[in-house]
């Protein structure tokens, strides 16, 4: 950055009172302990219910990240219905519902329905009439209260890696660039070809008359 004309040179005091403005992390060990005790208190308050509810497996948005799978906010209404649950019933047993999400592929729909069914198979719902239970408590068989349902039902692999194998002679003869260009051209010219064929059929029908 240059200076012009007969102006006063800058003399900014950026390091003035540095001790008051500096950001430190000396409370990290204490914050770690507070988070741990908060998780333990939450687990004790919930009783047998898992601290973290079951979450759906969803694809990350955009073409750059759609090969990755992450936890979603909640299951769709369609997934809940196919799993044999109602919306309020699902929420009462620790299955969150997201009314904004939509199922755009059969693969994700079947995957999340299977997750709900596997969750229900291991679920033990204690009745409300029991005086020792405050409200409707949920237990996952063989799971401690401090653990999350996600730890018991982890996310599946984003894709199945293909085992290494030798390239066949037929695959060596295929020109991948040529195949891609031809398929692209077919897709681009499909509308014009259909229109041309329809015009020929119409002319042939008129000629017969």
Would you write up a description of this structure?
This protein has 209 residues and is mostly helical. It folds into two domains: 46-152, no CATH class; 169-208. It is 46% helix and 7% strand. It is built from nine helices and four strands; from the N terminus they run H-H-E-H-E-H-H-H-E-E-H-H-H. The protein starts with 17 loop residues before the first helix and ends with a helix.
Structural class, by secondary structure, is mainly alpha
Which regions are unreliable across 5 or more consecutive residues at pLDDT < 50? none
The biggest beta sheet reads: 2 strands, antiparallel
Helix-strand string: HHEHEHHHEEHHH
Helix content: 40-55%
What general form does the structure show?
extended
Number of strands: 4
Number of helices: 9
Give the N-terminus to C-terminus distance in angstroms. Answer: 82 Å
What average pLDDT do the residues reach? Answer: 86
Radius of gyration: 31 Å
Lateral arrangement of strands in the main beta sheet: 1-2
Strand content: 5-15%
Number of domain modules: 2
Features of this protein?
7% strand, 2 domains, two-stranded antiparallel sheet, 209 residues, ribosomal protein, ribonucleoprotein, mainly alpha, Ribosomal protein L13e, 4 strands
């Amino acid at each position: 950055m240059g200076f012009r004309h007969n102006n006063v040179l800058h003399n900014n005091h950026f390091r003035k009172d540095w001790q008051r403005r500096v950001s430190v992390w000396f409370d990290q060990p204490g914050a770690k302990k507070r988070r741990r005790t908060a998780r333990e208190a939450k687990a004790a308050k919930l009783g047998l219910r898992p601290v973290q509810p079951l979450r759906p497996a969803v694809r990350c948005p955009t073409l750059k990240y759609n090969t990755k799978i992450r936890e979603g906010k909640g299951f769709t209404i369609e997934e809940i219905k196919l799993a044999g649950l109602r919306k309020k019933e699902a929420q009462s047993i620790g299955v969150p519902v997201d009314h904004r999400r939509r199922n755009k592929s059969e693969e994700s729909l079947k995957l999340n329905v299977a997750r709900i069914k596997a969750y229900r198979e291991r679920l033990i719902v204690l009745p409300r009439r029991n005086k020792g239970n405050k409200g409707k408590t949920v237990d996952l068989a063989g799971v401690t209260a401090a653990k999350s349902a996600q730890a018991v039902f982890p996310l599946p692999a984003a894709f199945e890696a293909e085992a290494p194998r030798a390239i066949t002679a037929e695959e060596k003869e295929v020109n991948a660039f040529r195949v891609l260009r031809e398929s692209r051209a077919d897709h681009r010219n499909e509308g014009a070809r259909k229109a041309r064929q329809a015009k020929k059929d119409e002319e042939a029908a008129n000629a017969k008359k």
